[in-house]
């Protein structure tokens, strides 16, 4: 981590970012899903929470979205779901940096793992832009855009899963190290 960013790598920043994410996770996204379920009658109308879906599934479900549902989806992708990655990705960066700074010397290559959320951020924003484009452009079925949305969704979830594995593995290693040192 460079020295400027290192000043923000602390528990206060982690807590602040976590608290900023909560209203979106607990209020905004559930409201959006509930509203979309009512408008579309689909059990799961939000594609960006699906780990994987095919472009064909996306194009198959798209006609279930009336004008109001398409606008809501597109606008929320460009607002709520644009802001959310700007909050949770720094949260993941700070978490990884805090954990791996305790596990290895500053020059160790494992500190570069803290940059992995930038890939997640790029995949998430690309997914959001693809979905918004698809919902705003409908009725033409933009098959290449559906393929892009599907691809970026999968990349987002794969990178997110890898980052969570790295966080859990780092926390377990810290816990085992602490237990081993306290028993000496």
Produce a short descriptive summary.
The chain has 184 residues and is mainly alpha-helical. The chain is 76% helix and 0% strand.
If you had to describe this structure to a student in words, what would you say it looks like?
- With 184 residues, this protein is mainly alpha-helical.
- It has one domain (3-182).
- The protein is 76% helix and 0% strand.
- The chain is built from seven helices and no strands.
- Helix 4 packs parallel to helix 5.
- The longest helix has 40 residues, at 143-182.
- It is elongated.
In terms of topology, how is this protein built?
Layout (H helix, E strand, L loop, with lengths): L2 H4 L4 H30 L14 H7 L5 H12 L1 H24 L12 H22 L5 H40 L2
Question: What keywords describe this structure?
Answer:
mainly alpha; 7 helices
What's the β-strand tally?
0
Q: Outline the low-pLDDT stretches.
A: none
The overall pLDDT average reads 92
Query: In what range is the share of β-strand residues?
Result: under 5%
Kindly give the count of domains: 1
Overall SS class: mainly alpha
């Amino acid at each position: 981590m460079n020295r400027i960013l290192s000043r923000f790598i602390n528990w206060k920043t982690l807590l602040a970012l976590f608290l900023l994410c909560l209203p979106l996770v607990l209020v905004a996204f559930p409201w959006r899903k509930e509203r979309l379920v009512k408008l579309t009658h689909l059990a799961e109308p939000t594609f960006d929470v699906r780990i994987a879906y095919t472009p064909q599934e996306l194009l198959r479900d798209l006609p279930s979205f009336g004008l109001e549902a398409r606008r809501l989806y597109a606008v929320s992708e460009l607002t709520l779901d644009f802001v959310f990655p700007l909050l949770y990705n720094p949260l993941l960066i700070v978490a990884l940096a805090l954990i791996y700074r305790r596990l290895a010397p500053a020059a160790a290559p494992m500190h570069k793992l803290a940059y992995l959320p930038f890939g997640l951020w790029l995949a998430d924003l690309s997914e959001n832009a693809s979905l918004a484009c698809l919902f705003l452009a409908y009725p033409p079925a933009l098959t290449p855009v559906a393929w892009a949305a599907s691809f970026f969704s999968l990349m987002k979830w794969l990178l997110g899963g890898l980052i969570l594995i790295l966080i859990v593995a780092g926390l377990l290693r810290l816990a085992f190290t602490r237990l081993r040192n306290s028993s000496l």
